[in-house]
TrEMBL record:
SUPFAM superfamilies referenced in this protein's UniProt entry, alphabetically: NagB/RpiA/CoA transferase-like
InterPro entries xrefs: 3-oxoacid_CoA-transf_B (IPR012791), CoA_trans_fam_I (IPR004165), CoA_transf_AS (IPR004164), NagB/RpiA_transferase-like (IPR037171)
Gene3D superfamilies recorded: Glutaconate Coenzyme A-transferase
One Gene Ontology MF term: CoA-transferase activity
Protein name from the UniProt record: Probable succinyl-CoA:3-ketoacid coenzyme A transferase subunit B
Domain of life: Bacteria
Signal peptide (residue range): none
NCBIfam families with a match to the protein in the record: pcaJ_scoB_fam (TIGR02428)
Keyword set, alphabetical order: Transferase
Transmembrane segments: none
Length: 230
């Protein structure tokens, strides 16, 4: 309970987001072309280990995104899809949006790591709008969930009211149906397969029972579930 209450405070909240991003980085293999969505996914770029050769792609026209810039590296013209300033690695390439989406739709992105508002037990994803609230548009999310070879969603396990964000059925407008293969939250890692949702890892500070109790979706527990995994 203390963790849940303090997670709303600036310092601890950042630590929770960092915890999710660090775990998500383990999903990336050397040689991958990866697209990082807006929000927590953008933090993943800061934790890619030096032994991995990874190229990050942004739908606004940059192939080869580096970590967030220091004050001395700041270039206001160099941004990611979320309009955050970034750096570019040696050999980076710039291009227009049509070419960027051709890469995505053509199946050239190995992994898309996206944020989520809701995910269903069947892998449906809702991550682009809440009815009644103004949004700028879906961006590249709908293209990414269908064009990337693997889609991983990273997010908090519950919302600010303590309600599960992993549901039997999504209530918000969908980005895609049956498109998510893995979900990583601050509490657990779950796979979406042909037989539904499976719990494969439990974060430090939680038990299998805790995860089942805070998840609305039906879920089985892997025989090889890793406890206190991250």
């Amino acid at each position: 309970m203390k963790e849940e209450q303090s997670a709303n405070k600036g310092g601890v909240r950042v630590d929770t987001r960092e915890k999710i991003a660090r775990r998500a980085e383990k999903e990336i293999e050397s040689g991958n072309y990866v697209n990082l969505g807006i929000g927590i996914p953008t933090l993943v770029a800061n934790f890619i280990t030096e032994n991995k050769q990874v190229v990050l792609q942004s739908e606004n026209g940059l192939l080869g995104i580096g970590p967030y810039p220091t004050e001395g590296e700041l270039d206001a013209d160099l941004i990611n899809a979320g309009k955050e300033t970034v750096t570019a690695i040696p050999g980076s390439v710039y291009f227009d949006s049509s070419e960027s989406f051709a890469m995505i739709r053509g199946g050239h992105v190995d992994v898309a790591i996206l944020g989520g508002m809701e995910v269903s037990q069947n892998g449906d994803l809702a991550n682009w709008m809440i009815p009644g609230k103004m949004v700028k548009g879906m961006g590249g999310a709908m293209d990414l969930v269908h064009g990337a070879r693997k889609t991983i969603v990273i997010m908090d396990h519950v919302n600010k009211h303590g309600q599960s964000k992993i549901l039997k059925e999504c209530q918000l407008p969908l980005t895609g149906k049956g498109v998510v293969q893995r979900i990583i939250t601050d509490r657990a890692v779950m796979d979406v397969g042909s037989h539904g949702l499976e719990l494969i890892e439990v974060a430090e500070g939680y038990s299998v029972e805790d995860i089942l109790n805070c998840t609305e979706a039906d879920m089985t527990v892997s025989e090889k579930v890793k406890l206190q995994a991250f």
